[in-house]
Write a structure and sequence with these properties.
By secondary structure, this protein is mostly beta strands. It has a single domain, classed as Jelly Rolls (Sandwich), CATH 2.60.120.10. It is globular. It starts with 11 loop residues before the first strand and ends in a 7-residue tail after the last strand. The strands form two sheets. It has a seven-stranded antiparallel sheet with strand order 8-5-10-3-2-1-11, with no helix packed on it. 28% of the residues are buried. The longest helix is centred in the C-terminal third of the chain and has 5 residues. Helix content is 4%, strand content 46%. InterPro entries: EutQ, RmlC-like_jellyroll, RmlC_Cupin_sf. This is Ethanolamine utilization protein.
Length: 131
Amino acid sequence: MTISKYTSDNAHWIQFGDAEVFIGDVLTEENSKSMGGGFACFLPEASMTWSPSYDEAIIVLAGKFTVDSKDSSATAGPGEMIWVEAGTSVTFRAGREKVWLAFATYPLWGTTTETQANSSALRPVTSPPSD
């Protein structure tokens, strides 16, 4: 059995289009056979709309984070988690302060057909903006 520790410094960071949304992949096809995971940073008031074709658990580390769908909405703060079921069209959005998240997906989100189809919206960056 292997145990590994990762921090946001280990992440491969991307920016979602022109939105102030930064996703740092840590668990990728390079080191995981079954699930994806990493960190995300949303600058104040930033948002993105997405229709995940994978299940996703989002753990809020700092700030207030809201996920809206056609049928419901959930807002979480530090130490709380939001679950998004595959196939649910959602808008992810930050509140009035910078939001830091950890996330886990099944399967690896980067290998899904949906992510591949939208890859032009994902731009590599060195890191999210610093405080």
